[in-house]
Design brief:
The protein is built from 17 helices and nine strands. By secondary structure, the chain is an alpha+beta fold.
């Protein structure tokens, strides 16, 4: 991280708490003039002072981390890639400078752009509804308030915490001891423990449309018998979190400013309950040790812990405990239409926030070979890191039984390429061969590659030059330029 980034962060944190430079300098044991130089990027922020700042503001050191600045800059670049800004001649250096020197202003601009985008989408939907009304097909009114989607806020919340919640890990470990859980008999162990708490567990084939229900009056958990064992275990552990650890879930969700609405906080509690379930089914210490020993073989881990492919992938992204970190992974889950329903970046890769992702990513190609694991080495146009090793596979969601509806999704898991040798999937792959790496991007508007046959929009970084007499691999590139 550069000194510029740190200086602006110190100034931002101090102003947020309405402290003067003199007051903060006194608490840190330095002169006000020296603090002024730090805030204006004229003096370095030493490790000792950084720790003092974290203690003074009750912050995690991760809040000063570079990846948060990189994500902010990436989101700003994506927003300014909108054609509405084309005539202003903005370049990436200017956008990054704004994000680095004035992060509060950058976030405000992002909020304004998000509101603009939602208003624009609402106008399109309103036009469609108006047309449908004229044709006699309108069925109801439309919500045009342009609210922030709770899922987006929760995604940001998980990313901000780097998908690691130590208190939930501790509660999961306590349950293993209290319920005397054993691998291979966790459902029975959890059910017996709940019985001792006065809560019954009932399996019912009648609950086909509802996979889990808790009757507060009867103090009884109903689970659908149509669920596969891995999902049944997961749902029971999730309900334990919601019943027995609601205080912690509420504390974690209510105290975070990222979550601005009731729906966002409710969704966050459900996501945190799922996190707890993953920690129960795959206890941190044993799961981490097995993952390292077996070189992150996802299917082997799923068999060992009685979980699904997707559950293992998600758990691998949470291995962030100090002193026992796993490989830093990113994870992506998409449907066949390209909708992203789950995303997290622990590897440093940037995801599109306002537009569609690059179709050349491995996770989208997994639909071409259902059920098989695809391996990909890829290189991004820029960034650090910009080379990644990824695996992807399709997974099926649904309940058991003939004729039950099922959804096919694809899950992608990746890491920086320098960590790939730790994965069994990298055996036999030439990780040094840049020519063999597939060139990918974040999204079309931010990618300057001129030879992509899947480009659907012109690049923000190159002027649009359409020619009638020459056609390259894409309409939006000049093959002779």
């Amino acid at each position: 991280m550069t000194t510029t980034n740190l200086g602006s962060k110190v100034r931002s944190k101090r102003r947020a708490r309405r402290m003067t430079q003199a007051e903060l300098a006194r608490r840190m044991g330095i002169s006000a003039s020296y603090l002024n130089l730090i805030e204006h990027n004229q003096r370095p922020l030493t490790a000792t002072l950084l720790i003092k700042l974290a203690q003074e503001f009750s912050l995690e050191l991760s809040e000063f981390a570079a990846d948060e600045d990189q994500r902010l800059a990436a989101h700003m670049l994506e927003a300014f890639a909108d054609p509405v800004f084309e005539e202003h001649g903005l370049n990436s250096a200017e956008v990054r400078e704004l994000a680095n020197s004035s992060p509060a202003i950058a976030r405000a601009v992002l909020t304004l752009y998000e509101q603009f985008q939602r208003a624009r989408e609402s106008l399109v939907e309103l036009a469609e509804v108006s047309y449908a009304t004229q044709e006699g097909h309108a069925e109801g009114a439309m919500n045009l308030r342009g609210e922030v989607l709770p899922s987006e806020e929760v995604n940001e919340y998980i990313q901000h915490h780097m998908n690691y919640f130590g208190e939930l890990e501790q509660r999961a470990e306590q349950l293993w001891v209290a319920a005397k859980l054993k691998r291979g008999a966790r459902f029975a162990g959890m059910a017996e423990w709940l019985e001792r708490q006065g809560i019954g567990v009932l399996l019912s084939i009648d609950e086909q449309r509802i996979v889990r229900r808790y009757d507060r009056d009867l103090r009884r958990i109903n689970l659908s018998e149509a669920l596969p064992p891995s999902s049944r275990n997961f749902q029971l552990a999730t309900q334990i979190a919601l019943i027995c650890h609601h205080d912690l879930l509420e504390q974690l969700s209510e105290d975070d400013p990222i979550l601005t609405s009731t729906n966002s906080r409710t969704l966050a509690r459900l996501v945190l309950a799922n996190y707890f379930a993953g920690a129960v089914l795959m206890p941190y210490a044993s799961f981490h040790q097995t993952a390292v020993t077996q070189r992150y073989d996802i299917e082997l881990l799923a068999n060992r812990f009685g979980t699904s492919f997707e559950q293992v992938c998600h758990r691998l992204t949470t291995l962030r405990r100090a002193g026992a970190e796993g490989v830093p992974f990113h994870m992506l889950r998409v449907d066949i239409a390209g909708n992203i329903s789950k995303r997290f970046s622990g590897s440093g890769i940037q995801f599109a926030r306002f537009s569609g992702a690059c179709p050349r990513w491995n996770v989208f190609r997994a639909f071409q070979t259902p059920g098989l694991i695809r391996v990909q080495t890829s290189i991004m146009p820029a960034g650090d890191p910009n080379k990644f090793f990824c695996v992807a596979r399709t997974v099926a969601h649904g309940r058991g039984g003939y004729g039950a509806p099922r959804a096919t999704l694809a899950v992608g898991l990746g890491c920086p390429i320098d960590r790939a040798p730790e994965l069994v999937y990298a055996d036999g792959v030439d990780l040094q061969d840049e020519e063999g790496m597939l060139a990918v991007g974040v999204t079309c508007r931010l990618c300057e590659r001129r030879d992509c046959e899947q480009r659907v929009l012109p690049s923000l970084r190159q002027p649009l030059q359409l020619r009638e007499d020459v056609r390259g691999v894409s309409m939006y590139t000049d093959p002779e330029g």
